[in-house]
Amino acid sequence: MSRRSLNFYQTKSPIYRKLEYFLHPRMDFLVGNSLAVTGELEDESRGKIPVRLIYNGINSAGPLVADGDRIRRELELDSSALVFVIVANLIPYKGHEDLLLALARIRQQLPERWYLLCVGRDDGILQSLRHRAQTLGIGDNVLWLGSRMDVAACLAAADIAISASHEEGFSNAVLEAMLAELPLVVTDAGGNSEAVVDGVTGYVVPAHAPHELGAALLKLVLDAARRGEMGARGRQRVIDQFSMTACLNAYEALYADAIGLQV
């Protein structure tokens, strides 16, 4: 069996917990996509079933080709504007409200022209987030883009990427931002700290902590050279550690092991 998220859902739906605890002993392997997830699987299986870690992989082949300038023209953003981006559906646990609070805290130290691009489907909280941004005095700086088919271009239009999530398994959105050569500020939810190396490819801060989130963002805002260095290191880290090829090879080895083949 394979799990792609933390097990918070078991608390909300106890029947899932009972079903999974029933099924665990009947598995040959339990697979998780981050150390946070495999740790939970080891606890649930009480060490009786082999647990494997296989990170998500993304297609990292080829050069950067996304047209960020097109997105800036579409949104009427000056080429000199500072642009943040978060790619996450509008769900409470994705931490958008924390991010709004963080940006409101540091807005006096941001350039005159700065914007946050929020890319993701509205799951029912858009209006409350819009209102929150307005009451915090940053409503004009936050652009709600909804679901997009050109996420790569939205990332290419940005200077800094963010994941403010309270819970994750292992975020492909984080990997995609790293591949786009963006420095990141992420919370320590799930596998975020396994993808982003704190102080090397971005900053890792506690979840539910707008003050720490804002402080880390400000470090990147004030140091363009550091942003470039971290972005380049992040892209190389995805190519080296989180490619689709590495992921597929790991699954091939797992299945071969399960049926006793030599690979």
Description:
The chain is an alpha/beta fold. The chain folds into 2 domains: 52 residues, no CATH class; 174 residues, Glycogen Phosphorylase B (Rossmann fold). The protein is 45% helix and 14% strand. The chain contains 12 helices and 9 strands. It has a 6-stranded parallel sheet, with helices on both faces. Strands 1-2-3 form a 3-stranded parallel sheet, with helices on one face. Strand 7, helix 8 and strand 8 form a beta-alpha-beta unit. The radius of gyration is 20 Å and the shape is globular. The mean pLDDT is 94.
Secondary-structure map:
Blueprint: E1 2-3, H1 8-12, H2 14-23, E2 30-32, H3 35-45, E3 51-53, H4 68-75, E4 82-87, H5 96-106, E5 114-119, H6 126-135, E6 142-146, H7 151-156, E7 160-163, H8 172-179, E8 184-187, H9 192-195, E9 202-205, H10 210-221, H11 224-241, H12 244-258
Parallel strand pairs: 1-2, 2-3, 4-5, 4-7, 5-6, 7-8, 8-9
Helix pairs in contact: 5-10, 8-11
Number of strands: 9
Fraction in beta strands: 5-15%
CATH superfamily of the largest domain: Glycogen Phosphorylase B
CATH class of the largest domain: Alpha Beta
Task: Give the proportion of residues in helices.
Answer: 40-55%
